[in-house]
Amino acid sequence: MRIEIRHLRALLAVADCLHFRRAAEQLNVAQPALSRTIAQLEDAVGETLFRRNNRQVELTEPGRVLVEESQQVLSQLEQAVTKTQRAGRGEIGRLAIGYTDFAISGKLPAILDDFRHQHPDLHFDLAFGSTAQQLEALLQKRLDFGFITGPNLTPGLASRPIQRDRFIAAVSESHPLAQRDSICLQELAHEPFILGSRDMWFHFRKRVDDICAKAGFVPQVAQETFNSETVFAFVACNFGVTVHLECARNYVRKGVRMVPLSDVDESLVTEVAWRKEEISPAQQTFLDHLEQRS
Length: 294
Hints:
Layout: H1 5-17, H2 20-27, H3 31-45, E1 50-52, E2 57-59, H4 61-88, E3 93-99, H5 101-105, H6 108-118, E4 122-128, H7 131-139, E5 145-149, E6 157-172, E7 192-196, H8 202-214, E8 220-225, H9 228-236, E9 242-245, E10 256-260, E11 267-275, H10 281-293
Parallel strand pairs: 3-4, 3-5, 7-8
Antiparallel strand pairs: 1-2, 5-11, 6-9, 6-10, 6-11
């Protein structure tokens, strides 16, 4: 016979009362029904759980062991039910979140820190990736959210803006332009450029090409790298200059000077993207948090 939860609850009630009638009243069942339930449990385990006589009921040693184990089983079941209900309300779980250099240099750290304090039982699995990599991971359900370079035009994915950054120039502190309050982009036309690789920074590189074309030149790329840290390292060495975003001011690199571009009005938007369908409770909690911050 299969042991059911009702058998364990009956066992604990009788063990607590050491009296079948009072235990039956506690469980709101008839005493004969309770006696049958205990008998079924004893048959299932093959041991006598209670010693009975006309005056008292006592637990046997096998009964005492089963009582202790049953208490743990029911406690674990109660915890499981509670966790399941909290998961249904989006209070616990994990979120896989992708990010670009620009997101992690901008508002994303504050967003995650604020969310973590408000929802301590929702945890993050963070992964760096290019916009293209994140969009693919979202469609393949390997990411819940991607903080990408906008605009997102991918079918099946929704998005909303998170931050908007103006373009700036970054030069070595020893560069002749470093002491200027601002410069025109065209002044960098004959400078060697340090830029993120086109495969990893495709969306950003396209925007840089566009603003340089408007300024009348094509950037002379001397070195490609895969992240902002390496870009600024080469700039600090005076290997070249770069065009980046103003969120890079949050990234402090000794030897680099950020200079505003006086003739560039364009900006780049970082968006958070997610799948439109099948939004989980945890995902909805994160979306609600983003809505509250907007």
